[in-house]
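Notes from the 1:1 (GR / supervisor)

We went over the backlog. Supervisor wanted to see one worked example end to end before approving the batch request, so GR pasted a single chain during the call. The sequence is below; no edits were made to it. Supervisor asked that the structure be written out right there so they could see what the output format looks like.
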Amino acid sequence: MNAALFAETSAEATRSATLAQAVAQSDVAVREDLERWLATPREQGGGGLPPEMARTGALSMLFFMNGLAIQAIREPAGDDAAVKATIYHYVKGLFPSLA
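Structure output shown during the call:
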């Protein structure tokens, strides 16, 4: 994923109804994929979460990933180890059963 392109596309979507619709559809598809993966039983490679927790977790993960993309633009020379540790702690806190 290219963070700058993500930000530019998001900005352009505020000016173009057609692009806004495409971005919204993409977000729904990503969220539904995350939700499906989180709800899939662990023995099948998923998170094994109850449906409501999978729904909330997918939305939370989407928000978090969007924030990471913006932060990558604002701080391009960021500390990769710190980012990885932050992601690990975020996921562990959100989904303790997956850690």
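Supervisor's comment: The two ends are 25 Å apart (CA to CA).
Batch request approved.
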